[in-house]
Amino acid sequence: MQTEDSQGGSPSRRAPTYPEEFVSTHVPPVDLAARLEKIWPVSRRTMVQTGAALATVTLAGCATQAAGPTPPPVTAVPSPVELPPSTVPVTLHVNGVRHRIDVDTRTTVLDALRENLGLKGSKKGCDHGQCGACTVLIDGRRTNACLSLAVMHDGDQITTIEGLGTAEKLHPMQASFLKHDGFQCGYCTPGQICSSVGMLAEVKMGMPSHVTQDITAVGPLTEEEIRERMSGNLCRCSAYPNIVAAIVEVAGTSGGRA
Ligand code: FES
Ligand code: FES
Asked: How confident is the model at residue 248 (pLDDT cuts 50, 70, 90)?
């Protein structure tokens, strides 16, 4: 049972009392200023002066940045340069017909054929020399028309798929592609046919390929040779076996088969 004390509070709420020997009444005075000076011997005056100096330097830097870099001195505007004409006249002999055209100096043979002369047989696949769809024969040599500028071929003889044969009289290679079903969508076919005609001419001239064993005596034209020599002409439909068969027949070889 709890009892009330003289102040009316319960005994458990009263401040505790400790024995005399536990309570020290003497707290030695601490000189905080002296201690601080020992740790950091900088006077308050010095600190205030240093702070003010730093603030002045920072503000001066900001003011310089806000003003921006010093503008360059104004010089006289140069008079406009006279540029050379960007189109030049070019003569191209395409499929036996002479064409005199004005072309932009940056025009490729492929664009000159397709856009200037309206010969759309040569196809633009990659326009980067990687697919062979644009292959034409220039002076008898197969060429990626997308990689060659028209101005480089002034006076040259160019043969496209339209010039190899006619609908009534197909070129033997065109007929062989038909016979062996050497195409599906047909997009790569003009390039494949021009390339294979040029490739057989190279073999006739004795030009070796990367897989030719004896470069002093080119031949026979094996399937391996044909595939290597035609490796610059891609076919997304993968008609390769039939393309090789068509070329083998025109080449008049066994293609390496017994
Ligand atoms: S379009 Fe010329 S190589 Fe592809
Ligand atoms: S036939 Fe379609 S890309 Fe060759």
From this structure: very high
Domain final residue pick, 145, 163, 181? 163
- Is residue 107 domain-resident? yes
pLDDT in tens, 186-196: 999 999 999 99
Would you state the pLDDT for residue 4?
A: 46
**Residue 57, Cβ neighbours under 10 Å: how many?**
8
Q: Which of 128, 146, 163 corresponds to the end of one domain?
A: 163
Tokens of 37: 């000076």
Domain of residue 239, CATH code = 1.10.150.120
User: Among 126, 194, 233, which residue has the most ligand 1 atoms within 8 Å of its CB, making it the best to mutate?
Assistant: 126
Give pTM, 2 decimals. 0.68
To which H or E segment does residue 135 belong?
A: strand 135-138
- Please determine, for residue 5, whether its predicted confidence score (pLDDT) is greater than 60: no
Rounded distance from Cα 233 to ligand 1 centre (Å): 9
Residue 217 phi/psi, 5-degree rounding, is -145, 85
Atom of ligand 1 nearest to the CA of 131: 4
Confidence check: pLDDT of 54 > 80: no
Q: In angstroms, rounded to a whole number, what is the distance separating the alpha carbons of residues 2 and 61? A: 75
Identify the residue with better confidence: 56 or 181.
Answer: 181
> Rounded to whole angstroms, how far apart are CA atoms 248 and 235?
18
Whichever domain contains 143, its CATH number is 3.10.20.30
